[in-house]
Amino acid sequence: MATPTVDRGLEDVVAAESKICFIDGKEGRLVYEGYDIRDLAEKSTFEEVAYLLWYGQLPTRGQLSDLSKRLESLRSLPVPLRDVMEHLPPNAQPMDVLRTAVSGLAILEPAETKPGPSSIGGALRLTAVLPSIISAADRFRRGLEPLPERPGLSHAAHVAYLLSGKTATELDVRAMDVALILHADHELNASTFSARVTASTLSDLYSAVTSAVGTLKGPLHGGANERVMAMLREIGTIDRAEVAVREKLARHERIMGFGHRVYKVEDPRATILREWSRRLGEENHDMRWYDLLRKVESVVHQEKGLYPNVDLYSGSVYTLLGIPDDLFTPLFAASRVVGWTAHVLEEYNDLRLIRPTALYTGPTRLTYVPIDERVAAEPASAVPR
Ligand code: SDX
Fold it and tell me: How many angstroms separate the Cα of 305 from the Cα of each of 57, 159, 266, 313?
């Protein structure tokens, strides 16, 4: 029998059938349930896209109004969870606090966690409450009480207010809405895949989202936008950009915000977020991030032929919205929770335990040696994997 080949990182492995999201990596197209992301970013809202991803069709005005009202009614934090969060160390990483809070919520609200179609209740609850969790974590670590809810705000306006602490302008709210739409789903990315693996065992939706939060935290996945801003702050001025980027590449460092496993051309989300970075820069009379990013982009493309991904410009948009760097990835999660939960529901609907195999490369017929007859392996070779 021919030795099977290993597709490291499951690259190009088709692991599921899905109707939720289509990516054309060659053409640079992203489609949610048949609708091009460029149309949705221009014409839709996060609530409407959430409905689309969960139910597979655009809502009527009545359906959208009902969904928006339900989401608004589910934004508050239960007191026991607030108590736990308030006593976490102030230097806890926001993604760790978010992961803990999602787990805690599952214990406090077990009714929402039954695997199957009823999990849509949990999907709504998590989508509504994640921004409140992120904001409360940020306020507690600064010794402040959580912000009071402001009724009547759209989801994007609510998120912009909670994460920046200020009343957002109309342009800021629209920028937030577009960012939330763009991050809502992306087919079988690592965090969504981990959510589907968890759901495929018939574990509950909150456990699946907890798996996904832990996966998104990684800098090769969700954590990149925070590192893009750290890189820009380290570069400082535009005249230093070219040398700084070349030095990083010479050290074989990854430049955060560039490259993608699927896109072989520009990530369409980067195209849209670049324009919002420019618009917000102009509104705030602060073009330094946009100008720096354009320069970095031209050097990386010239040197490595790499294109920007969704993380390159998202950090500058969030910075111009007044959001702290270490809340960027939690904000990514606050949007992607819609995609995660849509995929979990799809998995429940056509369940198959996800369990690949490995190509075993070790020995298979060793004889057991009694402990007193064993010779210690050289220290160099007796190390944990
Ligand atoms: C997201 O999967 C998704 O859909 C994710 C996402 C989503 O919406 O869920 O789109 C969100 O995660 C976007 C990606 C954010 N991460 C980063 O920006 C981190 C930096 N990018 C990379 O580490 C990398 O591009 C990945 C991880 C995103 C993709 O890596 P691959 O497909 O495994 O590609 P690779 O590592 O095999 O690299 C191929 C070549 C290598 O060169 P050689 O060693 O063969 O000479 O390209 C080079 C890499 O060195 N390369 C980079 C690079 N990305 C790839 N070189 C410098 N900087 C980079 N960013």
Answer: 38, 36, 11, 18
Does the beta carbon of 189 sit less than 6 angstroms from any atom of ligand 1? Answer: yes
Q: Is the CB of 75 under 6 A from ligand 1?
A: no
Q: Given 24, 36, 221, 286, which residue is catalytic?
A: 221
Write the pLDDT tens digit of every residue in 197-255.
999 999 999 999 999 999 999 989 988 999 999 999 999 999 999 999 999 999 999 99
Active site (annotated) includes residue 221: yes
Closest-CA residue, ligand 1 atom 5, reads: 189
Domains of the chain, first to last: 16-219+324-349 (1.10.580.10), 224-320 (1.10.230.10)
CA distances (Å), origin 370, targets 252, 374, 378 = 47, 7, 18
Mutate to test the pocket of ligand 1, among 309, 310, 337, 340 (most ligand atoms within 8 A of CB): 309
